[in-house]
Specification:
Number of strands: 6
Helix content: 25-40%
Structural class: alpha+beta
Distance between the termini: 39 Å
Strand order of the largest sheet: 1-4-3-2
GO biological process, one term: protein targeting to membrane
GO molecular function: olfactory receptor binding; zinc ion binding
Strand content: 15-25%
Number of domains: 1
Main location: membrane
Subcellular location: Membrane
Bound molecules: zinc ion
Number of helices: 5
Oligomer: single chain
Radius of gyration: 18 Å
Membrane topology: Single-pass membrane protein
Shape: elongated
Length: 193
């Protein structure tokens, strides 16, 4: 994960340098960050992304289109300094009996997309730039998903933070495994409207 954080930091720096070369922005990971619990002067930005996970006990890997990444940003105009805190929710293996939570692995392309979206949001929220509605670039799903979202093993679900936007699920997921479909059907209902 350490290396991974460095990638996020580096890409973020490159993107901020392009738009605000004279300003200092930092990105840090904060595992204690809570969605919708904001300190004064901070803005939140949440994205639902695609990532894959690997179990450190059995090496099984899986993919999820419901990986929540969120940021709290703060901009100090007087100091020309900005701060972004980030948290990514983990998931754990479905097959192991006592699996540890695993952090998601993102492709470089998806890290760039997520951070591009973040920078556009910073320009809008902190600098009041970009008057058009910001269009979000979705992350790339690089392989097909199996089954519905596994809420029992999703850190965000377990903490009550996973009520995400309707996701595009595959048909197989809603046809099979009736046990865990209530969320799925809700998603379908929303996307049909
Ligand atoms: Zn496992
Ligand atoms: Zn969840």
């Amino acid at each position: 994960m350490v290396e991974d954080v460095e990638v996020w930091k580096q890409v973020f720096q490159e993107l901020m340098q392009e738009v605000k070369p004279w300003h200092t922005w930092t990105l840090t990971l904060d595992k204690g960050l809570l969605p919708n619990v904001l300190k004064p002067g901070r803005a939140q930005y949440q994205q639902w992304t695609f990532a894959r996970f690997q179990c450190s006990s059995c090496s099984r890997s899986w993919a999820s289109a419901q990986v929540q990444v969120f940021f709290h940003m703060h901009w100090s105009k007087e100091e020309s300094k900005g701060q972004v805190k980030m948290r990514v929710f983990a998931q754990r293996c479905q097959k192991c009996s006592q699996p540890p939570f695993e952090v998601p692995q993102f492709t470089q392309e998806n890290i760039s997309r997520i951070l591009n979206n973040l920078v556009l949001r910073i320009l809008k929220k902190c600098y009041r730039e970009g008057f058009k509605p910001v269009e979000e670039i979705p992350t790339i799903k690089d392989f097909s998903l199996e089954g519905p979202h596994d809420s029992d093993n999703c850190e965000a679900c377990l903490q009550g933070f996973c009520a995400g936007p309707p996701q595009v699920t595959n048909l197989l997921a809603s046809r099979s495994s009736r046990a865990n479909t209530s969320y799925q059907e809700e998603s379908w209902a929303v996307s049909m409207h």
